Amino acid sequence: MTEPRWLDDVERRAWQGFIAMSQLLEEQVTQGLRRAGGLSMADYRVLAPLSEAKDQRLRMQELAAQARWEKSRLSHQVRRMENRGLVRREECPTDARGAIAELTPEGLRAIREVAPLHADNVRRIFVDGLSRDQLAALADISETVVHRLGSRTGAE
Fold it and tell me: What is the rounded distance in angstroms from the CA atom of residue 98 to the CA atom of residue 21?
């Protein structure tokens, strides 16, 4: 059996820093969304792409891909949001196995109310603390890792 390739100090520092940063950012962003309009991060991950889509509708399969979620997770989230009047789901007219998620007027109101506050929060807790060079480097790093992992899982 070969010896594991343990992380060296720089690798360990990068990994542990990334994990801590991810957790803290998610907590802060989630708190901001809840304060701004009572939405969860999961709500936002459904509402934002729907608000940007043509006719504010997306096939559930496309919405799951954008959120990077399994179809079952999206289905449960959409059901909870349907119960709150934020979205509605309908059968796809061209594919009996498919479904479409559509933003309701209440969902559109919620995302329009929260999105500017969310952007301000993201800017305050993340963007404004980094230089343009750091942001560009982080964007490159993130895209590289996402591409590498996406090519392994078939998701992208």
Answer: 37
Expressed as residue numbers, the domain containing 71 is 32-113
Backbone angles phi, psi at 104, to 5 degrees: -90, 165
| CATH assignment of the domain containing 70 | 1.10.10.10
Does residue 144 lie in a domain region? yes
Listing DSSP states for 51-70 in one string gives: HHSGGGEEEHHHHHHHHT--
The C-alpha atoms of residue 103 and residue 109 are separated, in whole angstroms, by 10
Give the chain's mean pLDDT.
Answer: 93
Is there a contact between 36 and 117 (Cβ–Cβ < 8 Å)? yes
In this prediction, residue 155 has a pLDDT band, given cuts at 50, 70 and 90, of very low
The two tokens of residue 72 are 């079952």
- Domain count along the chain: 2
Angle at the Cα of 45 from the Cα atoms of 42 and 50, rounded to 5 degrees: 130
pLDDT tens for each residue of 136-154: 999 999 999 999 998 655 4
Distance, CA of 105 to CA of 33 (rounded, Å): 19
CA distance 151 to 6: 24
